[in-house]
């Protein structure tokens, strides 16, 4: 079957058909998927059936895989493969986590608009989420994941704002983002393990050659500016970049595999029924260099 790509949104998002992610893609399919990623930023593959090992093998064709912050913590994990992130409301015994559960509170930070691992010196490229179990709809919502197009947001800035932003460097800090929702309790040594990192505010996306804002809830302040001034500018840029016209909202169905480019999108999870299981598995590919090493123009 040939691969087809159909846009889902004016700016970002496309439905991909003709790809079985249970096997690593061949070179031709991989090249097609990369072209689609570079154009649409977010790809949706429906009706997939994947084990964690198959998700790892598929994702590894796109780059080396990250082992996330949670998987590096000591103790038992629910999932066996460290490169597969556990994006669920389930504990190690597959029971729904209590509202006061520390891991649940930490993960609530994912409901802020963010870019994965922007707090790392060398951040990540692609994120992939596979839906194993999806909660029913409720008054709280269905646990949708929303994606915002940072290239379109940059394009829509006034020219003088582009000129202001392009040379700026921003400090990103995982503990700043978690502190915004009141989560400040971390194991001894964790703050030292994840010190803040600096990233360019404006990047040039290597696949499309388009300029893009690089924003995140982890973005604490602008280097060299008074903290208050920098945070106000970042607040305004986040409000601009997440206007509804720039956002694609994905409503999950079991078997969905969603791939997105962290270099030119932000995303956030939405609320869902906490009394029902929500089980998504994530794989993330690593970049090869700091954003500070990229040319600014």
How are the SSEs ordered, and which strands pair?
Elements: E1 4-7, E2 14-17, H1 27-40, E3 42-45, H2 52-60, E4 85-88, H3 102-107, E5 124-133, E6 145-149, H4 150-155, H5 159-165, E7 169-172, H6 174-179, H7 190-193, E8 197-200, E9 202-204, E10 211-213, E11 219-222, H8 227-241, E12 247-250, E13 257-261, E14 265-269, E15 279-286
Parallel strand pairs: 2-3
Antiparallel strand pairs: 1-2, 3-13, 4-15, 5-13, 5-15, 6-12, 6-14, 7-8, 7-11, 9-10
Explain what the structure shows.
With about 300 residues, this protein is α+β, with helices and mostly antiparallel strands. The chain has one domain (about 5-285): Clavaminate synthase-like (Double-stranded beta-helix, 4-Layer Sandwich). Helix content is about 25%, strand content about 25%. It contains 8 helices and 15 strands. It has helices spanning about 25-40, 50-60, 100-105, 150-155, 160-165, 175-180, 190-195, 225-240; strands at about 5, 15, 40-45, 85-90, 125-135, 145-150, 170, 195-200, 200-205, 210-215, 220, 245-250, 255-260, 265-270, 280-285. It has a 7-stranded mixed beta sheet with strand order 1-2-3-13-5-15-4, covered by helices on one side. Strands 12-6-14 form a 3-stranded antiparallel beta sheet. The protein has a 3-stranded antiparallel beta sheet with strand order 8-7-11. Strand 9 (about 200-205) and strand 10 (about 210-215) form a beta hairpin. The longest helix is centred in the C-terminal third of the chain and has 15 residues, at about 225-240. The radius of gyration is 18 Å and the shape is globular. The mean pLDDT is about 95.
